Amino acid sequence: MMSVMDKENIIIENRRRLGDILAVYDPITGEGSASIERERIEIEGFPITEMKLPASMLDDESVARLIAGGAERYLREVKSMEASDKNIISLWLEFCLKRIKHDFEYWARTMTTIADKGKGRDTAFTLNRPQRMYLKALEELRLSGKPIDIILLKARQWGGSTLTQLYMLWIQLVHKRNWNSVICGDIEKQSSIVAGMLAKVIARYPRWASGGKQLTTAPYQGAQKTRVISWSNSRYSLGSAQKPDSLRSEDISMAHLTEVGLWKATQGRKPEDLVQSIFGSIASGAYTLKVIESTAKGVGNFFHRTWTDACQMRNNFTPVFIPWFSIDLYSKTLATNDYSAFIDSMNEYEHHLFGLGATLEAIAWYRDKRREMPDEWRLFSEFPSTPEEAFQSTGRRVFKISYVNEARKGCVPPTFVGDIAERGEKGKNGESTVFVPALPGENKEDGMLQVWLMPEKEEDMRDRYIVAVDVGGTGSKADYSCIVVADRAAMPDGGVPEIAACWHGHIEHDRLAWKAMEIARAYNNALLVIESNTLETEGTEGNNFEYILNEIAGRYSNLYCRTSIQEIRQGRPRRWGFHTNSSTKPMVINFLNKALRDGLYIERCLQTAHELDLYEFKENGKETGAVEGNHDDRVMATAILVWVCYNHPLPSRTSSSGSNRKHTRIISEASI
Predict the structure, then answer these.
(1) Which of 126, 71, 73, 76 is closest to 94 using CA atoms?
(2) Which is higher by pLDDT, 79 or 388?
(3) What mean pLDDT comes out for the span 416-445?
(4) Which of 164, 232, 273, 483 is deepest in the core (most CB within 10 A)?
(5) Read out DSSP for 50-100?
(6) Average pLDDT over residues 481-496
(7) pLDDT in tens, 148-163
(8) Cα distance between residue 293 and residue 289, in whole Å
């Protein structure tokens, strides 16, 4: 039960939050703006005497003198002019031109006209609360002199794209000349909407702010989708991911890529290829801008990978997320005398929302919306409170999001990426294993071995490592094959196994089997567990797989055998590999779920965590697998691996130091 004091504190905090939301926001005076540092000043004689100006503006000597002496004194002493009304207005406009260079909010309110969405009228652009939150991130980067590189994860529509486009236009009209931009959406319709908005702003731009000239745009070299702005000689190009050939990405300084989560891979071209071709034309520096923006559309795709890398500071993008409760529209009126009863009725998740920053009024709205939505995951996807909720992609997930998020905390970049090779003939004594680093420019995800823990060769421990293999196809659209290694060194002392390495890619099946054997041999002749049923039952490719396993068994002494000792004694042939079927698949998946819940192993591979998020119960409620269009190879390999880790004898110490084990070393390109 919640104590009275707790309830009182919630009410006090809620009133404070409402006060912040309802506080005066006036971009003309600067009151209520928190996007940049401001100082309250007074200039006598101006149409507006009290203002909160950007701190950066106060470094201007003329502004400092205006503040010190007022408009009339400034005219007389600095400009040697009469303090007439006409001259004061002229000085005021001169002051405003200085201000728009420092104050985007003021510029947007006084210089731009946009459509008032849903009201059928035009209005001056006044930033709403989430837009001001986003602007703060933009301005922090601009004022620091850094490239303005942002990845924006959006909740429902609140105008993030509009702000991005107008911010870019502000730079082109106020700060820079010959400063070209690209705006690319998923489909051409999005680009046409942008074109209409920019054309309206430019056509209605005040003449006094552009040297008395009417701003115009014209096609650049006959290209209708690339327009050049007369005032600044800057261009903006409009295009779509579905028809990228129309984009002019040469000599650009800014790019806004919108709804990237919807971009589809096409034959021979992935979304990241288009992004790289556009961003590659930008020489990063002050006032350059790269914005990747989208609503979340599942995990594991380019947008999600870029977001995750930004959050873990593995790229140069600043991540910005706006939760639904920051949007003022999503709120329901509550009477003050209803607060107590409402707080008593709040469930655990609603208390979580309050802890995140939602008001009681917003939570009341959310409760009603929750009743309207058929599934909780759809509610999370449409109205995310956290980035993790935004990336929900299925309502039938097998592994709880909290379990996967906990596992994701252990995921780190690999210490080595490359390949493994053996000197000498397969299976011959005396060969040495070498780890060959990837060359610069090589694809470091598929077809490469990622290593977090190198094998420790001098350790006097038997059965320390286990290697599991999930077998896929060989075609470009087939399932991938996956080899995963676990280090069980901590298990004898009550610890848990840790993912040590992972190989993932398309490969012929005989080469896959030999590669798995090479990796297992490198890891102290680890127990090698190969999932066998895929190829035993799939036809032509599988007809020789049992032969392949038998051949490996003749050359590798620690291959997993599913035939029991009793059956072998009875004369039955050994059957190599782990057979995944309607009985064993639920067994290993359920065990993996338990392992994630109870922290029974340490995950290191971020791509595996992504696959866990996309693993679901199918509509019949019995079968499991990846969400359509995705893969579960890492999940299955890891599930088999973790199950074997706990169902194979624990590692044990040996009296010898393992002097017969092969030496493993990393070999560089230079030494080759």
Answers:
(1) 71
(2) 79
(3) 71
(4) 483
(5) EEEEEGGGGGSHHHHHHHHHHHHHHHHHTS-----HHHHHHHHHHHHHHHH
(6) 96
(7) 999 999 877 799 999 9
(8) 13
Q: Same domain, yes or no, for 291 and 301?
A: yes
Looking at the fold, whether 299 and 336 belong to one and the same domain comes out as no
pLDDT at residue 643 in the model: 96
Which of the four pLDDT bands, split at 50, 70 and 90, describes residue 544? low
Same domain as 532, residue 385: no
Q: Domain containing 217 — which CATH number?
A: 3.40.50.300
- Type of residue at 56: S
Which domain range does residue 647 map to? 459-651
Whether the predicted pLDDT of 71 surpasses 60: yes
Length of the chain: 672
Q: Are 81 and 12 found together in one domain?
A: no
Whole-number Å distance between alpha carbons of 399 and 408? 13
Region 84-113: mean pLDDT is 96
- End-to-end Cα distance, the chain: 69
Angle in degrees, CA 33, 167, 253, rounded to 5: 140
Query: Could you identify the residue written with the tokens 């089997």?
Result: 513
pLDDT single digits (tens) 10-58: 999 999 999 999 999 999 999 999 999 999 999 999 999 999 999 999 9
Q: Give the gyration radius of the chain's Cα atoms.
A: 31
179 and 309 inside one domain: yes
Domain assignment present for residue 657? The answer is no
pLDDT at 142: 97
Q: At what angle do helices 160-170 and 104-111 cross, to 10 degrees?
A: 100
Q: Which two tokens stand for residue 278?
A: 């556009």
The DSSP secondary structure of 530-547, one letter per residue, reads: EB-HHHHHSSGGGTTHHH
Pairing of strands 615-617, 481-487: unpaired
Structure tokens at 588: 């290993």
> What number of helices (H) and strands (E) belong to the chain?
22, 24
Domain presence at residue 419: no
Residues 276 and 314 in one domain: yes
Q: Phi and psi dihedrals of 393, rounded to 5? A: -130, -5
Instruction: Tell whether 359 and 280 lie within a shared domain.
Output: no
The model's pLDDT over 507-537, given as tens digits with 9 standing for 90+, comes to 888 889 889 999 999 999 999 999 887 544 4
Q: How far apart are CA 425 and CA 429, in angstroms?
A: 9
CB 288 within 8 A of CB 156: no
Which amino acid, one-letter code, is at 43? I
Overall average pLDDT of the 67-78 stretch: 95
Contacts of 327 (CB under 8 A, 6+ apart): 128, 129, 130, 155, 156, 158
SS3 17: helix
Higher pLDDT, 7 or 430: 7
576, 530 Cβ separation under 8 angstroms: yes
Q: Specify burial of residue 236 (Cβ count, 10 A radius: 0-12, 13-18, 19+).
A: buried
Contact, 332 vs 361, CB < 8 A? yes
- The single-letter DSSP state of residue 605 is -
Domain count, the chain: 4
